[in-house]
Known about the structure:
By secondary structure, this protein is of the alpha/beta class. The chain has nine helices and seven strands; from the N terminus they run βαβαβαβαβααβαααβ.
Amino acid sequence: xxxxxxxxxxxxxxxxxxxxxxxxxxxxxxxxxxxxxxxxxxxxxxxxxxxxxxxxxxxxxxxxxxxxxxxxxxxxxxxxxxxxxxxxxxxxxxxxxxxxxxxxxxxxxxxxxxxxxxxxxxxxxxxxxxxxxxxxxxxxxxxxxxxxxxxxxxxxxxxxxxxxxxxxxxxxxxxxxxxxxxxxxxxxxxxxxxxxxxxxxxxxxxxxxxxxxxxxxxxxxxxxxxxxxxxxxxxxxxxxxxxxxx
Length: 246
């Protein structure tokens, strides 16, 4: 397998960490951004114990200048970014009639506008090199909506609109662009939900359990591989049967 440079945003979270692990074990050079240095160093230390080296770079995905600087640091240290996983995301849940403008914009900026901010500095090198893999980590709630998540659902749905447009523009340059839409995964964020609420969620999942971060990472690793060259513009739902759309 050809060794490539991969950037995984939001790599200090549960799904992000699993994606880093998978890509590194495939032999790729992997970098991630951080805002909380202590948390990032803890992840790096954990990875080092598993024999995995990850490059940590300060970067705020909401800020295009910060993203530009982040990408240039990675290029200088590891080489041009050929695999990009736009994974960074947050929630600021409340019903829309109570939602403030900052709650709306913080989610849209972090989950959707970040796709522009991080992808823009890498896309031209991918086009020049005639190879690239871009994956957006969206959500089941971008497909079906969710009570109290108008901001999150809108941003996550927008990520796939970004995917299919970018896929059309760049297919002839050997670049694939796809979306992965996880259902409810056993990350710290989901496990922090009250037990009774989480039990109700699990009861709606035909498989009968929460997903594992590794199951999402496995799909990302597949889509970023050499063998996935004919898959582009797709949205892969990984949700245990919780939502079954066309």
